[in-house]
TrEMBL record:
<dbReference type="Pfam" id="PF13472">
    <property type="entry name" value="Lipase_GDSL_2"/>
</dbReference>
<dbReference type="GO" id="GO:0004622">
    <property type="term" value="F:phosphatidylcholine lysophospholipase activity"/>
</dbReference>
<dbReference type="InterPro" id="IPR051532">
    <property type="entry name" value="Ester_Hydrolysis_Enzymes"/>
</dbReference>
<protein>
    <submittedName>
        <fullName>Lipolytic protein G-D-S-L family</fullName>
    </submittedName>
</protein>
<dbReference type="InterPro" id="IPR013830">
    <property type="entry name" value="SGNH_hydro"/>
</dbReference>
<feature type="domain" description="SGNH hydrolase-type esterase">
    <location>
        <begin position="71"/>
        <end position="231"/>
    </location>
</feature>
<dbReference type="InterPro" id="IPR036514">
    <property type="entry name" value="SGNH_hydro_sf"/>
</dbReference>
Length: 247
């Protein structure tokens, strides 16, 4: 794949005004070393839990008995800032139910997670023996300026581990503001189609397609989707998940 051609397409798709909005939304969030970081990172230092009680979910999974669709990622998956029951996995459950699929969607998103955190949590998700896993990581790596090769290696480790556990994988990507530099943004954004091709998995290059920059779809932090936005994200994910399921 010509990486520059792909990034040009992504820029055209997302729009320069969208990326500018993301940049302004991220302004003012600083790490200790003076670099920019995501609001997701800051939120982890705030009081209060950022993770759903997984023990209750596990018990429900055992009792329910339906095969699992696991949404595995960071705050974009967790539904940070949205009302309870308004994350994109919640809407994906409703969409699958409405389409006649008998699967249980489990939200394994944790705000602030990097790809390294995802690797650290991988064994627990593997043990769930999901039918499908929607893998969404990398945004926090990019916003902290992590090495692109390290991010790609961590994503590859998760894809390999999930496939080895018997799950079918859907890869969901994200992009970055232009002030991170054209070379870095191009390399980062290319991680997702490159890995999708290598491992033969379906990919959604930009999780917030038709959401970012649309009035009412994003929260005030310009990073996380609203309830309306998460409903659209679920509709973005559904066409990639649906061919992997059985009615």
């Amino acid at each position: 794949m010509n990486v520059l051609w792909y990034f040009e397409r992504m820029q055209k798709f997302v729009g320069s005004f969208i990326l500018a909005g993301l940049l302004s939304g991220l302004a003012g969030c600083k790490t200790d070393d003076g670099g920019r970081t995501s609001p997701e990172v800051a939120e982890n230092n705030a009081p209060g839990p950022v993770e759903a009680p997984k023990a209750a979910i596990r018990k429900a999974d055992v009792v329910d008995g339906r095969p699992l669709v696991v949404c595995f990622g960071d705050s974009l998956t967790a539904g940070y800032g949205a009302e309870d029951g308004a994350s994109y996995p919640d809407f994906l459950q409703k969409d699958l139910d409405g389409a006649g699929y008998r699967y249980r969607v489990v939200n394994e998103g944790i705000s602030g997670n990097t790809t390294k955190d995802g690797v650290d949590r991988l064994a627990g998700v593997e043990r769930m023996k999901a039918a499908v896993v929607v893998l969404e990581f990398g945004g926090n790596d990019g916003l902290r300026g992590f090495d692109v090769k390290t991010t790609r290696a961590n994503l590859a480790t998760m894809i390999e581990g999930l496939k080895a556990s018997g799950a079918k994988v859907v890869l969901a990507g994200i992009t970055l503001p232009p002030d991170y530099g054209a070379d870095y943004v191009t390399s980062f954004t290319a991680n997702y189609p490159v890995l999708a091709k290598k491992y033969g998995v379906p990919v959604l290059p930009f999780l917030l397609k038709d959401v970012y920059g649309v009035p009412g779809m994003m929260q005030g932090d310009r990073t996380h989707a609203t309830e309306k936005g998460n409903a659209v994200v679920a509709r973005n994910v559904l066409p990639l998940v649906e061919p992997l399921l059985r009615k």
